[in-house]
Each structure stands twice: as C-alpha cells, then as structure tokens.
Specification:
The chain contains nine helices and ten strands. It has 322 residues and is α/β, with parallel strands linked by helices. The chain folds into two domains: 147 residues, Nucleotidyltransferase, domain 5 (2-Layer Sandwich), CATH 3.30.420.40; 158 residues, ATPase, nucleotide binding domain (Nucleotidyltransferase, domain 5), CATH 3.30.420.40.
Amino acid sequence: MKVLGIESSCDETAAGVVGPDGVLSDVTYTQEIHARFGGVVPEWASRAHAERITATVREALEQAGIERPDAVAATAGPGLIGAVLVGFAFAKAAAMAWELPFVGVNHLEGHLLSPSLDNPELKPPFLALVVSGGHTSLYRADAIGSYRTVAQTVDDAAGEAFDKVARMLHLGYPGGPLIDRLAQQGDPTAVRFPRPKATGLNMSFSGLKTSVRSALERQPDLAPADVAASFQEAVCDVLADRVMRAARQEGIHRVAVSGGVAANSRLRARLQALPLNVYIPPFRFCTDNGAMIAHAGRQRLLRGERHDMGLRARSVWPLDAA
C-alpha cells in the first residue's frame, strides 16, 4: 500500500509518499515570510499553504513515480486550525475524487512514529520524547494508537524557549538551528542557568528563559555564544534527566526522539550517550514533513482503520486521546 501524506499544521506545506519499502518521496516547502516577525503569523500561514499545496502534492507524486496513491492521509490536528484545514480539506477532496481510503492523522503521532521510518526494528513498547516548538511531552507507546503521557512541559515547549532566547540574542527565527550553530562556538559552563523542576517528571522552561533574560540584563557584555551554549546545555540536561528517569520508572530501554528540537546536535549527542537504545530520525524527518504523516496513516490503514468525510480538523488533540 502506497500512502500519500499531507501536512500543513504550522508553517511547512509538506507531502510525501510511503510504501512497503519505505519513503518514496518527501517534499517540504518552508514558509520564510514569518522570519521578519520572529514567529508564525496564522493568517499568512494559511494563505501560503493554499498557494503551495497543489504543487507540493504534485511534486511528491512525481518523485514517487505514481499518478495516484492507494490511500490518502492528512494531519487533522493539532495545530493552527486555519493552516490544518488547508491540507486536511485538500486531502479529503483528493480521496473523494480518486475514491480512495482516507485517514486523519494526529500530528503528534506522526512525529512519535517518525523514528521508525529509518528504524523498522523499533517496536512497542517504547518511550517517545516529542520535542518541538509547540510540544514537549514524553509518552509511553504500547501499540499503534495506544499512548500514555508520562511527562510534559507545564509552560513553554523547549522549541518555544529556543525561539525566545534566540530573539533575546538578536539571532532571528526559527531560533533552534541558530542557537545550535552559535553554541558550538561557546562555553556551556560559562553561565550557570537553573534546571527548572516541576511536579513528578514534568518539565518547565519558562523560568529558564527568564533566567537568560535576567543574565543578559545584569551582564550585557556576556558573549552571545556562551549564553547560547549555556542555555542549550540546560535544556539538554532537563530532557536527558527526564528520559533517564522515565526509562527507570517504566522499565523500558527503547526511546524514540522526534520533533524539530530533535535536530539539535547537542541534544542528539546527549541522548545517544545514555545507557538506552535511542532512536532519532534523520534531520529531514525531525521537522514537520509529509512522510511522517503518510507513515503514521499507513500504520493505521494497515490495521483496518478508515475515516469518513465527516471527520473534523482540530486545533487541540491530545495524543493519548487519539
């Protein structure tokens, strides 16, 4: 079964095709228009998706060498609802026109399962750290569609904190790659930022972000590279600590890591150094992409799941309720 997956939950218009032998195509158009504002403008995101969706899907099909897939999957949420609706409505229309099975995918499940795109040996049960600009959660995956939240951030997502600190350092947007690059020139021990704690295994990054702002106000001569490296190290310490503690608590030694922040070089090194079996997708599958939606949709379809055209898109959709 070759499945077309469509993703438009935020500022990437993406489409990909996944079949029995893996990824056949993956096309992503990243909207650069938001950079000047330091964040995503929802209305502009929706319009940009509408402008690019047809060409993106066509290119994905051409790269896969097919005229039509065997089924269609699309992100049904969570995300910016106007943006989600563009890809979601296009996918439903395509499935109806082609008379193909359709399935709506939880965006977070797409991320959670993305490490198995290149690692088919990754099977449940495993822990899954989904860490991005909008989400930072740790799940226990016992089967496809059976997920339990083990820990989550109580305030800012890790990627959101990266973006805000990048803004403080006048680096631009998106902040994650820029801080990662700058931090490689800095000393991660130069500034001792706190490792915020929350109830149980939950995480908090708002206080860390505030500590960076306070440090810059007190010591305006701090080297930006040292601030970036020290901040990044604090985030990695928190995430590595929660993953290790959750592994002990759940008695599971397989950990899948996904989401945009999973592309951070320091975080990848820290997690891969843990005494666990850690699976992280290639960089191209860390950020939002169509292949992960096709992959997650394909897993659901192979289980016999289908959605009718009455399925609605959602701005909020907890993964453990999917």
